[in-house]
Amino acid sequence: MATTSDEIIRVENVSKQFGSLEVLRDISFSVYKGEVLGIIGPSGSGKSTLLRCICQLETVSGGSVSVCGRSLVTDGVYAEKSELRKIGLNAGLVFQNFNLFPHFSVLRNITEAQRIVLRKSSREARDTAMELLKKMNLEQKAFSYPCELSGGQQQRVSIARALALKPQVLFFDEPTSALDPELTGEILCVIRGLAGEKMTMVVVTHEMSFARDISDKIIFMDGGVIVEEGTPSEVICAPKEERTRLFLKRFNEA
């Protein structure tokens, strides 16, 4: 059974507004070490905004967030900048549109942050990068540029880049949404492999079968709130809430 010491992410009563538009309202959940949390829901439900708030790309309007026992924001008040930087090292984010530097080689895309953020030597950074590229079956692409890669290969490079900083939790923001259907499988396979290694992950996805198979826990969001939360068999296979049932109707009838 998970304990408080195993808690990697804690979100309490988080809200987010853009002007008069309330995007997140009273969001609360926890993610424990080695756990995979799947977040599903319709477009515009606040899923990506929630990830961006935890990863410090957006600021919350209220509530509290802690990462690996460190307080990012408490009742809407953020920690000092030095503390925020330390917290940021624990969380890696894989974007849906890759966000690779187009003028850097694959190898440099993975080594740059290691040298600048972790202050690794060039050799250390290169060794780590090559190890991760081998894991992604991309070692032969080390000196290629992003424009020379398929979308699936670019996404695998961005996963390797995130892993290179050795985060305690990895966030995926719809990692297959920018890919052709035939390339989706290779990314899902990589994420399954990480789950098998007990990497703590939060995955926003529109792939329902993948969410069901990969997740320890599922959150269904709509209208900026958590409508339903539970195991995949509870939320996806036997949802209690009518809104969840309507969203999943096509999937569950397939």
Structural features, described:
With 254 residues, the protein is an alpha/beta fold. It is 38% helix and 27% strand. It is built from nine helices and eleven strands. The protein has helices spanning 47-54, 81-88, 106-117, 122-135, 151-164, 181-196, 208-214, 232-237, 242-253; strands at 7-18, 21-32, 36-40, 62-67, 70-74, 77-78, 91-94, 169-173, 200-204, 217-222, 225-230. The strands form two sheets. A six-stranded mixed β-sheet has the order 7-8-9-3-10-11, sandwiched between helices. It has a five-stranded antiparallel β-sheet with strand order 2-1-4-5-6. Helix 3 packs parallel to helix 5. The longest helix is centred in the C-terminal third of the chain and has 16 residues, at 181-196. The model has no long low-confidence stretch (mean pLDDT 93).
Top keywords for this entry?
11 strands; 9 helices; 254 residues; globular
**What is the chain-wise order of helices and strands?**
EEEHEEEHEHHHEHEHEEHH
Please summarize the sheet with the most strands: 6 strands, mixed
Q: Look at the structure and give the mean pLDDT.
A: 93
Count of individual helical segments = 9
Strand arrangement across the biggest beta sheet: 7-8-9-3-10-11
Secondary structure tally: strands: 11
Class computed from helices, strands and strand pairing: alpha/beta
- The general outline is globular
- Portion of residues in beta strands equals 25-35%
